[in-house]
Amino acid sequence: MNALTVMHPDSPESLIPELPVDFEAEQALLGAVMMKASLVEIAAEIVRPEHFAHDGHIAIWSVIAEAYAENRIITPPGINARLKDDPAYIELGGGKYLMDLCGAVVLTLPGFVEERARRVADMWLRRRAMISLQEAAQMLASTSDDITGAALLEGLEVEIASITGAVTEKDRTEPIAGAVELALAAIDAAFKADGKLIGVTTGLVDLDARLGGLHNSDLVILAGRPSMGKTALGLTIAEAAARSGKQVAVFSLEMSREQLAHRSISAASGIEGARLRQGTASGADVARAVEAGAEIKALPIHIDDTGGLSVAQIRTRARRVKRKHGLSLIVIDYLQLMRGPGTGRGLENRVQEVSEITRGLKALAKELDVPILALSQLSRKVEDREDKRPQLADLRESGSIEQDADAVLFIYREQYYLERAEPNRRADESDDKFNARYASWERLLDACRNTAEVLIAKNRHGSADSVKAHFDGRLTKFSNLHQAPSSGAGDWHDR
Predict the structure, then answer these.
(1) pLDDT digits 0-9 by tens, 64-117
(2) Is CATH 3.40.50.300 the right assignment for the domain spanning 196-412+450-480?
(3) Homologous superfamily of 23-167
(4) Strand partners, 375
(5) Is the whole-model pTM more than 0.70?
(6) How far apart are CA 359 and CA 381, in angstroms?
């Protein structure tokens, strides 16, 4: 069998004269599985067609893998019949090459095949990494303004993460005994906690009681129409988790980190954000804001306000936070602002993209073993109903959000809608009738003033339910209803 050389497909020979290849390992692997078909199962768990360096070897393994998947007998004559017109296969020598591969086999032991398969996969990893690094080096050396160096490095980090993820995938099929042990350990931990919270706290005791906190590997969707307070509640949960000692990563795709900091300072100090921004706060108020800011600065919250992030980019940045600081919770504001692989190709494709995004976020939650709280917009059809309380059906236009999520929470504030339905006097209406109608409206408004409902529409760990919380519109702040101080209606302006 002749020695083969693999060159970089697009770069001059002077830059990368030869990519790392172990053709002997590829030949030994192919020969062994052809001589003993039962060994294909071992190799198929480790290598894929693209892991082979030569197109001829790729073609041979593809036929072998296809036959294995279809539970068909694998024989050299059958492979030869399938590939007799394949140019890369002919280049290697065709049927004679197959016979040479089989004739050169020394061992057909499972351990030998596994070792050769891992060698083939490792060489592919090295080749792909070298090509990616070389392409990045060429682009970094360019003085073009089309893309920044920081963006190039970000792309390279995403690419390297995808390479390592591809080769570290393992068969996760295990006996149920291991899963039972993990479940019993969780039950024991809950028992020993003596009623204390096991998951990551939301900061709202009634919501924690219903959910048990936010659980590792869960994707939790927090949805609502504009002005319901999604960002405020997401920030409340992030800060509550951080105050309990958890490391939190917040990906804010809409608001800047400075805007989020303004909200946090306003909520913590009890001073309206508008007064702080417009310079109308008193000296004492500013001092309270500075004190609140010092407290917030100490919280283990990491904010990334880059717009249009993809799941892959969030994965890379979250992994970096976890590696440097540890990580217990990810908050994303909000889902529809994330970038999918087909952005800009029409509504139908965008719905598919959002479905791919939610699947990717659920996979990321499992990979990092942390809860992900993803904020989401609801469709406009909520506004067309007399009862404005959101339903799971309102998520359907966004693809598979409902199916992928472990929990779906909706925010609903009756006060928001009542304030916009203030009665107007009708032309044929007497003063008494109008006054009665207005008084009835005021009673309804007073009953729900400064109150928000968090509707638990889906809960994989329990039943659907709803809880009430206090919401201060002046401060865009959520808190426990029974602990909240009384206040006026405020300016209900939260998104």
Answers:
(1) 888 887 778 888 888 989 898 899 998 889 889 999 888 888 777 888 889 999
(2) yes
(3) DNAb Helicase; Chain A (1.10.860.10)
(4) 222
(5) no
(6) 24
